[in-house]
Design a protein that fits this description.
Bound molecules: zinc ion
CATH class of the largest domain: Alpha Beta
CATH architecture of the largest domain: 3-Layer(aba) Sandwich
Radius of gyration: 23 Å
Number of domains: 2
Number of helices: 10
CATH superfamily of the largest domain: Zn peptidases
Order of helices and strands: HHEEEEEHHEHEEEEHEEEHEHEHEEH
Number of strands: 17
Strand order of the largest sheet: 1-2-6-3-7-16
CATH topology of the largest domain: Aminopeptidase
Strand content: 15-25%
Length: 383
């Protein structure tokens, strides 16, 4: 591992970019660094200008470049028991500890640490750095950057999303949709059931409907045989409702998600749920027109579909010196790049098992493996 990478990892970890906070201090630091090498980075802000994506091109303004993509935000450390300060890199037993070391500031840092080499290499095809915000809260930030790239960037040949894969090449993952459903019933004294509509009872019907769909998905299984668990999953994560035992509750809300196999119609479960909710709502409204079932989407990350033999896959396998691809069950921004017709794979340093945990770490050997990956990329694009 070069000192440059180590230094850059330390710098990036020191910015607390928990998704609820601004990432602009980190963005500004990276911009200053890139400008020092004559590169002109582009900020793509969120609506209230508290966060930004950062896009930069090193090399000529031509097609056939490679995008190195990463997110700048990290998950919270609240209520986690850390041995050392999560925002100061601590080295113990050939590992670097800190929030974001695995997920995924080390990849971003290693790419940045090689900018001097990229500039010196006189690249024939460009390297694009694409760093997003708000990945951890549902891949919210990257969309505007992808739109900008589609409109303004000469077509890249490949996007490499550097989420932690232990430097294995991932060419498929599940898609994620998450929702909040609010049921509004009609409040009444519990002795007067004929005057009320019980929002909790309605919510339990909806939840039972979802858990029945989950059972059906398990039976449907995974025709590709590549996913663990081998089926689409459905999960209810939160529920709140009711006021007192002797009041018919007029409110109940619950949060839920599903993670569908990339081969499945991503809207199927949502549409089936809405149909059923519509039937229940019509029934409730016979009691009172104020009864409602409202479902709002919280997060959407499309699955990454296998694109066998794509340029991204071939390139990443060569750079990582691997000969097989893998599938994972967690979601990333990769599916969004693929939807914009950019060949995309995931390959990055660190173990996903370390992500989001207290005492998150990356092994120094993973940092070194990612450095070799980037160095080979520079060689390939310099030819
Ligand atoms: Zn991540």
């Amino acid at each position: 591992m070069t000192l440059r990478s180590r230094d850059m990892i330390e710098r990036l970890i020191s910015f607390d970019t928990t998704s609820r906070l601004s990432n602009l201090a980190l963005v500004e630091f990276v911009e200053d660094y890139l400008r020092g090498y004559g590169i002109a980075p582009k900020r793509i802000y969120n609506d209230d200008k508290t966060k930004a994506n950062l896009l930069a091109t090193i090399g000529p303004d031509v097609e056939g470049g490679v995008v190195l993509s990463g997110h700048t935000d990290v998950v919270p450390v609240d209520d986690q028991d850390w041995t050392s300060d999560p925002f100061i890199v601590d080295e113990r037993e050939d590992k670097l500890f800190g929030r974001g070391t695995a997920d995924m500031k080390s990849f971003v840092a290693i790419a940045l640490a090689h900018v001097p080499d990229m500039v010196a290499a006189d690249l024939k095809r460009p390297i694009h750095l694409a760093f997003s915000y708000d990945e951890e809260v549902g891949c919210i930030g990257v969309g505007s950057m992808i739109a900008h790239m589609s409109a303004h960037l000469p077509r890249p040949r490949a996007v490499i999303v550097g989420e932690p894969t232990s430097m294995r090449v991932i060419n498929a993952h599940k898609g994620i949709r998450s929702f909040m459903t609010e049921v509004t019933g009609l409040e009444a004294h519990s002795s007067q059931q004929q005057l009320g509509v019980n929002a909790i009872v309605i919510a339990t019907k909806l939840i039972t409907f979802l858990s029945d769909i989950f059972e059906e998905m398990k039976e449907r299984g995974d025709p590709s045989g590549r996913f663990e668990p081998p089926h689409t999953t459905v999960q209810i994560g939160t529920i709140h409702g009711g006021t007192a035992i002797n009041i018919i509750p007029h409110h109940c809300s619950f949060g839920w998600e599903y993670r569908s196999l990339p081969s499945q119609d991503a809207d199927e479960i949502y549409h089936r749920f809405l149909d059923y909710a519509g039937e229940l709502e019509a029934h409730m409204q016979k009691m009172s027109p104020q009864c409602r079932i409202v479902t709002r989407q919280r997060a959407l990350a499309p699955g990454l579909k296998v694109d066998e033999g794509s340029e991204a896959e071939t390139l990443a396998l060569a750079l990582a010196e691997q000969n097989e691809t893998h599938a994972v069950s967690y979601g990333t921004e990769a599916g969004l790049f693929q939807q914009a017709e950019m060949p995309t794979v995931i390959c990055g340093p660190g173990d996903i098992a370390q992500a989001h945990r207290p005492d998150e770490f990356i092994e120094l050997s993973q940092v070194a493996a990612c450095e070799r990956f980037v160095q080979r990329l520079i060689e390939v694009l310099g030819r």
